[in-house]
């Protein structure tokens, strides 16, 4: 996996995606110019360089809530659709998940594609600590995708972005010519039954247009699948689904709900290839 990663110092200083090699004795990744990046005892490597990033990512509490919700299987149909999108196009080569969080979707994709290896990339330390334990064939990298991916040109078979921000230009650079980019985004109906009662953040109705505009010139669509189904959520599940996303910063506080509530999951899983 180290051969897929590129030295961020060389990219910044020389616009040269110099490969990183693992030095097992030192538990570090090193490039030919001598730049070195230690592998943390939690198993991830930080490739953040330069001034501190303005991106903060998810907190440990948000990731705890997400892990609890995912372990209940509530988003399993979404994970299945993402996995099908990956394995329909590619079953080998490196898979990168951007904004990987707990590494849940990356791990599911790797389970379905035994030859493949993965990288979970996130800007939050609590996330990459979890990603380092998400799957035996996955590495974890702390990096800010908006500064540039620390990945060699054309090195990736597939990139995943599930409920996460994207950098299409950088993804296009790092993706192999026959690779695929799988993007999962919520529709306006996603968790709709909870939005008003809990004051949750609404999905931007212009989201699809903005996604298409961002992809233009870099990618062209291959497939688009709507994954929509009802979920019966108990009180703790509701607390977790609120606490695991941006609404954790915006909800007004505890709101009394029934012991269980039926909530709609509604997500579009799109597959893209590099534009001709």
Give helix and strand order, one letter per element, not per position. Answer: HEEEEHHEHEHEEHEHHEHE
Residue windows where pLDDT falls under 50 for at least 5 positions: none
For the terminal residues, how far apart are their CA atoms?
Answer: 28 Å
Roughly how much helix do the residues carry, as a percent range?
25-40%
- Please state the average pLDDT score: 89
Strand order of the main beta sheet, please? 4-7-6-5-8-9-11-10
Residues in β-strands, percent: 25-35%
Main beta sheet: 8 strands, mixed
**Given the structure, what is the number of helices?**
9
Radius of gyration: 19 Å
Structure characterization notes:
- There is one protein chain.
- It is built from nine helices and eleven strands.
- It is an alpha/beta fold and 276 residues long.
- The strands form two sheets. An eight-stranded mixed sheet has the order 4-7-6-5-8-9-11-10, sandwiched between helices. Strands 1-2-3 form a three-stranded antiparallel sheet, with no helix packed on it.
- Helix 6 links the parallel strand 8 and strand 9.
- It is globular and about 60 Å long.
Quick tags:
276 residues, alpha/beta, 3-stranded antiparallel beta sheet, 29% helix
Topology, please?
Blueprint: H1 8-14, E1 21-23, E2 28-30, E3 36-38, E4 44-46, H2 60-71, H3 76-89, E5 94-98, H4 104-112, E6 117-122, H5 125-131, E7 138-142, E8 156-162, H6 168-174, E9 175-186, H7 192-198, H8 207-215, E10 219-234, H9 235-243, E11 260-274
Helix pairs in contact: 2-9, 3-4
